[in-house]
Design a protein that fits this description.
The chain has 460 residues and is mainly α. Helix content is 79%, strand content 0%. It has helices at residues 6-28, 33-40, 43-72, 74-93, 98-126, 129-160, 163-166, 171-181, 197-220, 225-247, 261-290, 296-301, 304-324, 327-343, 353-356, 358-381, 388-408, 410-414, 420-444, 449-456.
């Protein structure tokens, strides 16, 4: 297994901490929503927008952030993002009413958009080949673990302290990362890339309007002008955005990237796999509280086996994929997760976690551990390191949009109510999405020539 140099270890640590705060905050809030609603009021609308305000700005601005990262340097952009995220977190924790809370959550998402592309770009800039695959595996284990352990941490803080402390979890890791970031000495990135700010605004407004329509249509209906007008405007703006990308020499989402086989097919696999992950995570966390009546902490603990397996296996899976190629892992992993989702069909009215949920969590954890690091390495390893920031941003935008869309369609998927029948319907849809992701990977993914060369050059 390849070893890291001192600089590479520092880079991996910085990248993990930077992404950790973003991914953790995207999930830790879920179990805090009832407590927020009780204290600040606003009912289910407040709960929805506390989650969605963060996800909309994160997904809408991440493409622009990737281009900014390439143009102005990863370290500079990451430092700005960390400071802004910390300030927004404090504002959320101190929010006196729902409006301030939602605005601060949107600011958190915008700051988080600066962190993810620049953190992965630091790895892809300083490492290639098998070392890069292992680094991405380590990064994946901890950042995905943050997403999975988030509900548990949130539940503990809500049950033992206050929902406000949930949003202060990130302050300490942000401070530590700013100190570590000052020690990273890399050559200054040449500022020769022009940032298309106008396209960034179009993309953000278009995606925001479309997601607004998808989320609110359940309450207002598609016939309402407050729904179909934003939906139509969103689609129009996104179409204009794509047209601008075709002829722009400073494209935020260079469409030529998708002609690179692993990048194009890998992002298609990402769309299905992350839609399934988002649907599964949301449904598990909510149903276990509303159905069997578990506490917030117990509902968070339900997914702990996935976190443990991710931490234990993701680094190894990344290294294995670096030597053997990502195709097999990106196929077997999602198919295993599809089997894990089907195991959730055993959940019944006579609920028992150990026999009905735990086996599914173990299988899901094994599949996820085999999938995520090879998937990320295949996509980013296919792109030149000078465009790694925008490549990372595109891939992260695809995963965030996948989650947004599937959660926005949740009512349709579960048949209007997340009861036991709705839970089973969600399990079928989740399994289907995972399976499609595995098939797409088998059809489209091949070994990156650069990674193959690097692996062949490693002495046995």
């Amino acid at each position: 297994m390849p070893t890291f140099t001192a600089l590479q270890r520092l880079v991996v640590s910085v990248a993990i901490l930077a992404s950790f705060v973003t991914f953790l905050d995207g999930t830790v809030v879920t179990v805090a929503l009832p407590a927020i609603s009780r204290e600040l009021g606003g009912g289910i609308a407040t709960q929805q927008w506390v989650v969605d305000a963060y996800l909309i700005t994160l997904s809408a601005l991440i493409l622009l952030a990737g281009s900014v990262s390439d143009a102005y340097g990863r370290i500079t952009v990451m430092r700005i993002g960390l400071i802004a995220f910390g300030l927004a977190s404090v504002a959320v924790a101190a929010a006196p009413d729902p409006l301030v809370l939602i605005i601060a959550r949107a600011a958190q998402g915008a700051a988080g958009a600066l962190l993810v592309p620049s953190s992965l770009a630091l790895i892809t800039t300083t490492m290639r080949g098998e070392v890069q695959s292992r680094a991405i595996g380590v990064w994946t284990a901890f950042t995905t673990g943050a997403q999975l352990v988030g509900p548990l941490m949130g539940g503990l803080f809500v049950d033992l302290l206050s929902w406000r402390f949930v949003f202060l979890i990130n302050v300490l890791p942000i401070a530590v990362n700013l100190i570590l970031l000052a020690k990273v000495q890399l050559p200054q990135h040449p500022r020769t890339i022009r940032v298309d700010w106008f396209s960034g605004v179009i993309c953000a407004l278009g995606l925001g309007a479309l997601v607004f329509a998808l989320i609110e249509q359940e309450r207002m209906g598609w016939s309402s002008p407050a729904i179909w007008i934003p939906g139509a405007v969103g689609i129009l703006l996104l179409a204009v955005f794509l047209l601008r990308q075709r002829g722009s020499d400073a494209a935020l989402m260079p469409l030529a990237l998708f002609r690179v086989r692993n990048f194009g097919w890998g992002n298609l696999a990402t769309l299905f796999v992350y839609a399934a992950l988002s649907l599964n995570g949301f449904v598990i966390g909510v149903y276990l509280q509303q159905g069997p009546g578990l506490s917030a902490t117990a509902a968070g603990l339900a997914s702990l086996p996935i976190t443990i397996l991710m931490i234990l296996l993701s680094s190894r899976a990344g290294a294995w994929a670096g030597r053997r190629g990502p195709r097999l892992f990106m196929t077997v992993g999602p198919l295993l997760m599809a089997a894990g989702a089907l195991l959730l069909l055993t959940v019944g009215s006579d609920f028992t976690y150990w026999w009905q949920v735990l086996p599914a969590m173990v299988v899901l954890g094994l599949g996820l551990s085999l999938t995520v690091a090879p998937l990320t390495a295949a996509i980013l390893g296919a792109i030149d390191e000078h465009r790694s920031g925008i490549a990372s941003a595109v891939n992260n935008a695809v995963s965030r949009v996948a989650g947004l869309l599937v959660v926005a369609l949740l009512s349709t998927i579960v048949g209007g109510t997340l009861d036991l029948d709705g839970f089973h319907s969600a399990a079928w849809v989740t399994a289907t999405l995972f399976a499609v992701g595995g098939v797409v990977s088998w059809i489209g993914i091949r070994r990156n020539p650069a990674a193959e060369t690097a692996a062949d050059s490693v002495p046995s």
